[in-house]
Amino acid sequence: MTSLRHTPASAGHARRRFGQHFLASAWADKVVRAIAPARDERFLEIGPGPGALTLRLASRVDHLTAIEIDRDLAAALQPQLPGNVDLVVGDILDADLAPYLAAGPLRIVGNLPYNISSPILFKLLAAARASGGPGGLIDATVMLQLEVAERLAARPGTKDYGVLTIFTALQAGVQRVLTLPPGAFRPPPRVHSAVVKLTFRPSPLPAGSEAAFETMVRTMFMQRRKTLLNALRPYAEPAGHDTKQALTEAGIDPVRRPETLSQDDLIRLVSVFAPTPKA
What DSSP assignment string belongs to 194-240? Predict the structure, then answer.
């Protein structure tokens, strides 16, 4: 754990470079009710800030690790914490989550900075894959900009449907549990927010196709408004595949657009490029 240095002048003041907006007490109570923590559970909190969620969770759970990037906020929070809380100073995007997952089932909570919420979500999805299912990373209850929450739950063919939607749906059920107005935070952001619960589950992708799936989806969605015949070519043809034939094998009309493909469509398509090895 990084050592803490107390700087009272800045403690509790939001810093723009960290995208900080601190949750008000009344809303923190609502979020904790939505999380529904149990006494024997272990939690990891992303960005505890002044501790609105941290202190409420600490009295309800077996163990909590809180990762805070702001050294001054961490220094101010440390003296308030009970013995079952470990406070780590660092960037969640640089943190190695493997040791926390190795210790047993883990739940995630956090008020995610709007400017890096997508990278954090992708990191959590990677951690869920690495943890090997429900015995590792159980769920994540996170506060996000409403626009990001809508992308997580978007349906094929809508403007919000995209790479984040697809990768999240592969590994998690998505439930929006609260919508928060700007006044729920200090200072108030310029947008509405939402609390979303991601319940992790094993991916339905064929074994060994994960890397192919990621590259295929990202390539197609760089040209999401083109037909699949054109959007898929930069992925298919360098790998020696005929694009039209691949789409035909997957039973997908080549004049459709990437943003219309469902999860089942995408899994059928990647199975053409990365077939499951025979036993």
Answer: EEEEEEE----SPTT-HHHHHHHHHHHHTTTTS-HHHHSHHHHGGGT
